[in-house]
Amino acid sequence: MDRVPVLKIGDILLVSIQIDLQDQSVLALQEDLAERIVSTGARGVIIDITAVEIVDSFIGRMFATIASMSRLLDAETVVVGMRPAVAITLVELGLSLGGVRTALDLEKGLALLNADGVSQTARALRDIR
Amino acid sequence: MTTSDDVEIPIATGDDVVRVRQATRTAAGAARLSLVDQTKVVTAASELARNTLVYGGGGEALVSQVTDERGRAGVRIVFRDEGPGIADVDLALTDGWTSGQGLGLGLTGARRLVDAFDLETAVGQGTTITVTKWRR
Ligand SMILES: Nc1ncnc2c1ncn2[C@@H]1O[C@H](COP(=O)(O)OP(=O)(O)OP(=O)(O)O)[C@@H](O)[C@H]1O
Ligand SMILES: [Mg+2]
């Protein structure tokens, strides 16, 4: 089973999904993230799906679960980089992802966490530019 | 009409569901579906392959490129299992209805994402679902 690496950058956890994930890997990622949020005290989670070709009900539900779970653990989750074809398909599938915050790309995702005052790192990364 | 590029994929693990997605993507690309239509049919295939695994107790998928009478290309996937079957098809095809822990979106969502959707099932014998997506 493939495991998705979770990178810690300051007070943000960054997950970049680069492979076609089977369901068990999706569940493992969910658990890894919960543990890492607590062990690192992260304030924000960014899930980058730029490379993801399809989002079905299972992975879509993972986004929603991670979003509510991270909120309970005092962190905000933003899903970034959704492809247009994926967004069109998700709507037709019937998955609205209501509680999930999204941004068009990583930079805008960081800006969102910064605007919330959630993340010091988001601010620092923005100021570097 | 089906062609010699048919691929048969046993569905017994989560990795097999990934294989069905990939084979569907390859066939949809070869049939020159638009990127959006490729994404739709691969997503539908993922939902149906997972159902075959989770509810059907495993089975197989047959992925083929097809052409209709007018020469239009498309991709067709047949999902087959010898599981418990679906007792109430109308209920199963209701948005939001699940017998498990799902969202109850797989069957109805998959049906919306393809051009043709055919479901045959018999309690105690199994389920066969055939979907087709045509090039526009
Ligand atoms: N191959 C199958 N064999 C037996 N029952 C099935 C099969 N496929 C679907 N079902 C039944 O139909 C119901 C609806 O399926 P559907 O895919 O729409 O929702 P789900 O799998 O429960 O949730 P989701 O797909 O949103 O995660 C299932 O809960 C199950 O009871
Ligand atoms: Mg399902």
Report on this structure.
The complex is a heterodimer of chains A (129) and B (136). Chain A is α/β, with parallel strands linked by helices. Chain A contains five helices and five strands; from the N terminus they run E-E-H-E-H-E-H-E-H-H. A five-stranded mixed beta sheet of chain A has the order 1-2-3-4-5. In chain A, helix 1 links the parallel strand 2 and strand 3. In chain A, helix 4 packs across helix 5. The radius of gyration of chain A is 14 Å and the shape is globular. Chain A starts with 5 loop residues before the first strand and ends with a helix. The mean pLDDT of chain A is 92. With 136 residues, chain B is of the alpha+beta class. Chain B has a single domain, classed as Histidine kinase-like ATPase, C-terminal domain (Heat Shock Protein 90), CATH 3.30.565.10. Chain B is 36% helix and 29% strand. Chain B contains four helices and five strands, in the order βααββααββ. The longest helix of chain B is centred in the first third of the chain and has 20 residues. The radius of gyration of chain B is 14 Å and the shape is globular. Chain B starts with 6 loop residues before the first strand and ends with a strand. The model of chain B has no long low-confidence stretch (mean pLDDT 95). The chains are: A alpha/beta (129), B alpha+beta (136). Chains A and B meet through helix 1, helix 2 and helix 3 of A and helix 1, helix 2 and helix 4 of B. Adenosine-5'-triphosphate binds next to helix 2 and helix 4 of chain B.
Could you give the topology of this structure?
The complex is a heterodimer of chains A (129) and B (136).
Chain A: E1 6-9, E2 12-16, H1 23-40, E3 44-48, H2 57-72, E4 76-80, H3 84-93, E5 101-103, H4 106-115, H5 120-128
Parallel strand pairs in A: 2-3, 3-4, 4-5
Antiparallel strand pairs in A: 1-2
Chain B: E1 7-11, H1 14-30, H2 35-54, E2 59-67, E3 73-81, H3 89-92, H4 106-113, E4 116-122, E5 126-134
Antiparallel strand pairs in B: 1-2, 2-3, 3-5, 4-5
Bound molecules: adenosine-5'-triphosphate and magnesium ion.
